[in-house]
Automatic annotation (TrEMBL):
Residues 7-99 form the NIPSNAP domain. Pfam families: NIPSNAP. This is NIPSNAP domain-containing protein. The lineage of its organism: Bacteria, Bacillati, Actinomycetota, Actinomycetes, Streptosporangiales. InterPro entries: Dimeric_a/b-barrel, NIPSNAP.
């Protein structure tokens, strides 16, 4: 399993648009082979940070999902929410592997 962590810098004045954007992507990830773990939005005070976490069974499955970007009409529509509202100022993706309670102690190293 591979988990994508997306760190967003958002426009706090466009939080409602960001929530629409997030709900749409949750639906798309889940429909196209992934498991979306949710968006995490500012809760207290002024903040321009938000996170999203979603997993795919493998990097190959994630790449298949990514192949739909810019091509599939539902993906284009979801990006339009972001682009037209300006709710996302920038973002950065990081790929991680989860350590889950039901995993054994041994896990193969992936750093060579």
């Amino acid at each position: 399993m591979i988990t994508c962590v997306v760190e967003y810098v958002i426009d706090p004045g466009e939080i409602e648009a960001f929530e629409r954007f997030g709900r749409r992507w949750i639906e798309l990830v889940n429909r196209h082979g992934g498991t979306h773990h949710g968006y995490f939005l500012p809760a207290e005070g002024a903040s321009d940070k938000a996170l999203a976490l979603f997993s795919f069974p493998s990097l190959a499955a994630y790449e298949e999902y990514r192949s739909l970007f810019g091509a599939h009409p539902d993906f284009v529509e979801a990006d339009r929410i972001r682009d037209e509202s300006g709710c996302v100022l920038r973002y950065e993706r990081t790929f991680m592997r989860p350590l889950l309670p039901d995993q054994g102690e041994e896990h193969p190293r992936t750093d060579g």
